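As the next step, I wrote out a protein sequence along with its fold in C-alpha cell form, included below for the reader:
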Amino acid sequence: EVQLVESPGGLVQPGGSLRLSCVVSGFTFSNYYMHWVRQAPGKGLEWVSGINGQGTNTYYADSVKGRFTISRDTAKNTLYLQLNSLITEDSGMYYCAKDRGTWGTDGLDYWGKGTLVTISS
C-alpha cells in the first residue's frame, strides 16, 4: 500500500522558517517525481514545488521561488520542503504527492493527508 505521511506543520511568525517532511512507503521512491501542493483556507489547490526521482532537478511556483527548497533523501524515503521567509499568504494545508511517473507530467496519483501551516504574528 502506498503511504505518504507528512510531518506536523505548525504556527510560525512572519519571516520565520519551517521544515516539512513526508515519509513514503509502498513504492520505489527514487523512481518517481514528487510534488508539494498547498491549499489556503477557502482557496483552491496551488502547486508549490516538484523534484525528480534523483533529486537533481527542482521546480517552484513563482509565489515561493527563492524562499522554499524541495529535496529528497532516498535512504530515508523522505521528501522535504524547507520554508523560509514565511509570509501570511503561505498559510494553508500542505500536501506531499506522488507523480504517476518519473517526469512530473503524468498526474498525481497519491497524496498525503496534509499538514497545516499557519503564519501569523
Observations:
- The chain has a mean pLDDT of 97.
- The first strand starts at residue 3 and ends at 6.
